[in-house]
Amino acid sequence: MTSQPSPPVSAQLLKRSAASDGRRNDQSPPAPAGVADTHVDHDHQTPGAPLLAHWQPVRSGSHTLVDQIVDRFVVCIEQNVFRQGSRLPSVRLLAQELNVSRYTIVEAYDRLVATNHITANARSGYFVQHKRQPARGIKSGEIVPTLSQDKIDVPWILNRLFSQQNNLGLKQEWLDTEIVARSIRKVARKMQPSALMYGEPFGFAPLRQTIMAQLAAHDLHVQPAGEVLLTTGVTHSVDLLIRQLVRPGDYVVVEEPCWFVVFAYLRMVGVNILTVARTPQGPDTTQLEAHCRKHKPVLFICNSTVHNPTGFTLSARAAHDVLRLAQQYDMWIVEDDTYSELSAGPPLRISTLDQCERTFLLGNYSKTLGAAMRVGFIAGPANILNEIAMLKLLSGLSTSSLNERVIHEIIHGGHYRSYIERLRQRINWARTKMLERLGDLGYVLAQPPAAGLFLWLDMSRDAEPLARQLNLHNIPATPGSLFYPDQRVSTYLRLSVSSYDHPHLWDALAAWQQG
Question: What is the CATH number of domain 10-128?
Fold first, then answer.
């Protein structure tokens, strides 16, 4: 009996429409170093060959040859057409049978090794990976339980907020992804190898120069060399400043209500937290002066423009009073300027009044360009920032110069200012709509904010159950209790205006109003 030849192995892969990568056989490089370019042992080759005969990758379409080959191998492996442990054809043989370059096969095999579908053996070639029981993954949007699930705490709310697509404020359709993508492409085209190295301790110098110019436009004059330090965002900035400026047992003053992450950083250092009420005009300076006389605090942390969570902006009188007390009692000021680009007019800053002699101004770009753009800055006294730069290096080395280059390109691309204006208009429109709907349900803010992403609503009774319910429906809502250092029961609720069109929000608020 005449034996039948073994069918070609590579021509067995399933069909998928794709584009040619333009590579020919005469451009084929050798097999990758360390992996044998062995012939297939047909006695031990992948079974099921007759089922997949006559397949060839397509050289016109929307997918490359590599993509097609990888996809077909994945299908065959996952459907057990290619058995676990089976030897795969060599690079040379597969390239011949599929009429593609060896380079194409090398790249396809490399991708399959990277995704753990196949393994590479230096002497005997490529083999289908043995399946392992996968560890349970976390689905997108799934919440990792925290230690306190019966009560909303900071870890619980952060898990919720960062797991929601709407997360901390901006709707996805409000973001200009093209301005970011265009800037990334420009940075990539002119990128030098130095961009892949560690960044400078103070951050990418051209971006620091740009920040200096932006601040100068609002009468705050600092020098990029020594007086501007780049960070990964305001959270990083606050962490560095607290660790540099305060010691265990010191007194630190915060506004009440206040961004709740600040409390966690202060407690980590072991300081005594004092509070002053935040009014529509700014912090209560009478309370602040009383604290200064009694406790001699070393630091005051505040929002000047578009306060989180109330949305208020301090008055000129309050700014002068705060600075006077800081000078009189030798107190540092950390001025969180996170949301100033959303303000209704030019930002009013304490740091402008003293030109950053005892104030540290914190800014960032993630609240306007998108949360993934983790770049922030500190403007402040050069002698302190020099020490903070060393702390930054010791705690996390340098910040990402790639991100900083992209931000620099975005600002200089010519469309940043118009984008910010469009974003501000969208947020203002959403706030107006939300306030109208709230009014229809009987919720009235005594003094609605003129800017910003948040509304600070008095819900008449403990708002935590409502906050939990809304978060379970992916509506970013934070109970007022988290904005106080003692996490007291609060009737207030922080809502994002980006939720104005979420139907469950209005159903829940209507039901809450009815008791």
Answer: 1.10.10.10
SS3 per residue for 8-45: CCHHHCCCCCCCCCCCCHHHCCCCCCCCCCCCCCCCCE
Report the topology of domain 156-172+418-513. Aspartate Aminotransferase, domain 1 (3.90.1150)
**Quick one: tokens of 113?**
């090794």
| Cis peptide preceding 134, ω within 30 of 0 | no
* Distance from C-alpha of 505 to C-alpha of 499, rounded to nearest angstrom: 7
Beta bridge partners, 251, equal 272
Give 436-494 pLDDT, tens digit per residue.
Answer: 999 999 998 888 998 999 999 999 999 988 988 888 888 888 899 999 998 899 999 99
Instruction: Answer yes or no: are the C-beta atoms of 391 and 244 closer than 8 Å.
Output: yes
One-letter-per-residue 3-state SS of 73-102 = HHHHHHCCCCCCCCECCCHHHHHHHHCCCH
Residue 335: what pLDDT?
95
pLDDT surpassing 60 at residue 274 = yes
Q: If one looks up domain 178-413 in CATH, what number appears?
A: 3.40.640.10
C-beta of residue 57 within 8 angstroms of C-beta of residue 100? yes
Domain ranges of the chain: 10-128, 156-172+418-513, 178-413
Residue pLDDT, tens place only, 147-165: 344 566 666 666 655 555 5
Q: Is the pTM of this model over 0.85?
A: no
Q: What sections of 377-486 are H helices per DSSP?
A: 382-396, 401-412, 416-440, 464-472
